[in-house]
Each structure stands twice: as C-alpha cells, then as structure tokens.
C-alpha cells in the first residue's frame, strides 16, 4: 500500500503545488499531478512563471510521447498508468484510480470549506482502502 500524506490548510492550491513540485523535481523524482482541468490549466501556467529563479519542466497528459518520456512532471485529469512516477499529487476532488502504481501519494487540501469537506471524504476512502495516512498541517509549518 502506498503512503498517503495529507498536506492540509494550504493557503492556496496552485502556489503550494508549484513549491511542492519544485521540491520533487529538485530531488530528481518523477511526479504525476491529477486534478480538475481548470486547476491543471492554472498550474501549467503557474509552473512557467511562479519563480524568476526556478523552472519546473512539465507537460500535459496529451503531450507527444517523446515529451512525456523526457518530463519528470506530468499533469493530467486521471492517473496515466503508462507513465511511471514515484509520487502522485492529488489536487482533485476525489481519490483517483490507479494508486497502486505509486510509492507515495500527496493529497493537498486548502482552507476552503468545500475542499476541506472533500478532503475528509478522501481521508475516509484512503483509510477504508488500508493506506498508511500521514498528516501535515501547513498552518503549523514555519514560514518559507
């Protein structure tokens, strides 16, 4: 079973995801990100502009095979089983299918009431599936 880390109380979904992906990329890890198309569009754009000093190479799920193979970050609306990654970052509303392909799952929840309610339901689903759950309360984290 994969380890599921809940990063909750994120101040904003997309900027937090950018920092998270920068960290994974810097460690040489391949990371898939799943979420709603509108969120992925914002994230795609933000990864090009969020830092003047950093760039996180990435591609969308419909990119040509050569681009997908060369990328360490893949953005998609569903898990791409043919693209091997160590980490799955869930920015979506539901638990995605295909979790067995990952060693680590990071589920990001903001302080928005709807996202918190959806996050609680995902927590229950992960628990019922037997995953090890780890809590990371971002409101307790030291400022960056």
Task: Please render the helix and strand layout as text.
Elements: E1 3-10, H1 13-26, E2 31-34, H2 37-49, E3 59-60, H3 65-70, E4 73-76, E5 87-90, E6 104-110, H4 113-128, E7 132-137
Helix pairs in contact: 1-2
Structural class: alpha/beta
Strand order of the largest sheet: 3-4-2-5-6-1-7
Radius of gyration: 14 Å
Q: Tell me the name of the CATH class.
A: Alpha Beta
Give a short account of the largest sheet: 7 strands, parallel
Distance between the termini: 32 Å
User: Quick one: overall form?
Assistant: globular
Helix and strand string, N-terminal first? EHEHEHEEEHE
Write down how many β-strands occur, each being a DSSP E stretch of 2 or more residues.
7
Binned strand content: 15-25%
């Amino acid at each position: 079973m994969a380890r599921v880390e809940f990063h909750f109380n994120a101040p904003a979904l997309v900027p937090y995801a950018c920092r998270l992906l920068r960290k994974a990329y810097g460690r040489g890890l391949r990371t898939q990100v799943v979420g709603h198309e509108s969120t992925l569009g914002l994230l795609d754009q933000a990864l090009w502009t969020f830092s003047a000093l950093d760039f996180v190479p990435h591609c969308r799920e419909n990119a040509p095979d050569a681009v997908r193979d060369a990328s360490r970050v893949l953005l998609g609306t569903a898990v791409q089983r043919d693209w091997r990654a160590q980490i799955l970052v869930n920015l979506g509303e539901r638990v995605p299918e295909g979790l067995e392909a990952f060693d680590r799952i990071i589920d990001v929840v903001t302080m928005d009431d709807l996202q918190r309610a959806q996050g609680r339901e995902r927590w229950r689903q992960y628990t019922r599936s037997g995953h090890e759950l780890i809590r990371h309360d971002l409101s307790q984290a030291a400022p960056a």
